Amino acid sequence: MVEAGRQNYRRVQKTGGNSFVVSLPKSWVTDVGLHAKDPVAVMIQPDSSLLIVPRRDIRTAVKSEATLEAQGLDKDFLLRHFISYYLAGYDTIRITLGRGDSSLRGFIREGIRRKLVGVEIIEESSGTILAQCLSGYVELPLKKAFERMAIIAGGMLTDSVEVLRGPNRELAKEVIDRDDEVDRFYHFLLRQLNIAVRDRSVIQEIGLTSTRDCLGYRLAVKSAERVADHAAAIAGQAESLTALSEASAKRVQDMATMSRKVFDSSISSLLRLDGKLAEEAIARTKDVIRMEEKVSGDILAPRMSGAQVASTKLMLESIRRAAEYGSDIAEIAIDLTVAEPQAL
Questions:
Q1: CATH number of the domain that 21 lies in?
Q2: Residue whose C-alpha is closest to residue 194's, from 89, 91, 338
């Protein structure tokens, strides 16, 4: 077996008129199961190095499958582990239910529907569920999926404070329910990034250029998911706030609008690798923080109960945290605008 990372120098030779060849290490050829005349993909990397991989249809001939034994496991525990195998990049996941439990099967089906993208149950019996996980990155590239996720999260942030206009249980519930849709994109994106880190030939297929991009987007995706979590929390707090005046509610909405602008600008700066836009988003975050301090001091009234004061403070904190997560994304954008050092 060839040792990973070991330097193996070989001379470039010229054949024919304008062709150059270099031999491949025999141990590597044997390890990956190549034979004479088998095709390989040769991809130019950002640092001008070459990545040589066996052609994709050869490597994926054998599908990966994970098996989960459900008997004796808590249903939430089981769903979390199913998601873990999905994120790891398994092609199929088999759940063995033992004696069979129709309520458990229903819970797993509903959890897959709410939390995951590209998973189909292809076989089901009283004792088994077999799910197939589709790659999906050709139909829905990573950047497009991330943009859709961010649009949903940003909309949740705006709508969450609309609940303050009056008791609106339906709108609050809708915002909270939309968090599941964000989670679906979140898990889908993590799956793509995990596969790409393990298989470098996938990096370009999902629209990135290097493993450093994968790390940056991994952090950005998590920050966007947290913005959605905070928006759901705001909707829950706003639903119970009846003591805020119309003027106070307007000020909270203005703060949320500013926070949304920071988040949207940060997303755009990452997708476009626009350092100037990223710097502007970071600067606006400080305005949101200052606005939180002022709004908090102005709208908290003595007539409020302790529970209402706590809800108001938590709501303002979540709006501020959404801007701060946006700022984190902007910092990632700045980091990725810097070229990596060239290999010696």
A1: 2.10.260
A2: 89
Q: Does one domain contain both 17 and 50?
A: yes
Do 148 and 291 fall within a single domain? yes
- The answer to whether 255 touches 179, Cβ cutoff 8 Å, is no
Domain boundary among 100, 133, 166: 133
Contact assessment for residue 177 and residue 232, using Cβ atoms and an 8 Å cutoff: no
Task: Tell whether 181 and 323 lie within a shared domain.
Answer: yes
Burial of 290 (0-12, 13-18, 19+ CB in 10 A): exposed
What is the model's pTM?
0.81
- The total domain count for the chain is 3
Going by pLDDT thresholds of 50, 70 and 90, the confidence category of residue 158 is: very high
4 is a domain residue: no
Whether residues 118 and 149 fall in one domain: no
Beta strands in the chain (DSSP E): 13-15, 19-21, 40-44, 50-54, 65-69, 92-96, 119-124, 128-133
Same domain for 228 and 270: yes
- The predicted pLDDT at position 59 comes to 45
> What's the pLDDT tens digit per position in 93-142?
999 987 656 788 889 999 999 999 989 999 888 788 999 998 766 678 89
pLDDT digits (tens, 9 = 90+) for 300-313: 766 667 777 888 89
Q: What is the total residue count of the chain?
A: 344
Where is pLDDT greater, at 20 or 58? 20
Q: What is the CATH number of the domain that holds 76?
A: 3.30.110
Q: Select the more confidently predicted residue: 1 or 231.
A: 231
pLDDT interval class at 340 (50, 70, 90): confident
The full DSSP string for 34-65 is --TT--EEEEE-TTS-EEEEE-HHHHTTSPPE
**DSSP assigned state of 335:** H
Query: Rounded distance, CA 290 to CA 279, Å?
Result: 18
- Cα-flanking dihedrals φ and ψ of residue 5, to 5°? 85, -10
Q: What contacts 24+ positions apart, CB below 8 Å, involve 50-59? A: 51/200, 51/201, 52/24, 53/199, 53/200, 53/201, 56/201, 58/33, 59/32, 59/199
Contact indicator for 266, 146 with CB cutoff of 8 Å = no
Domain extent, residue 107, equals 65-133
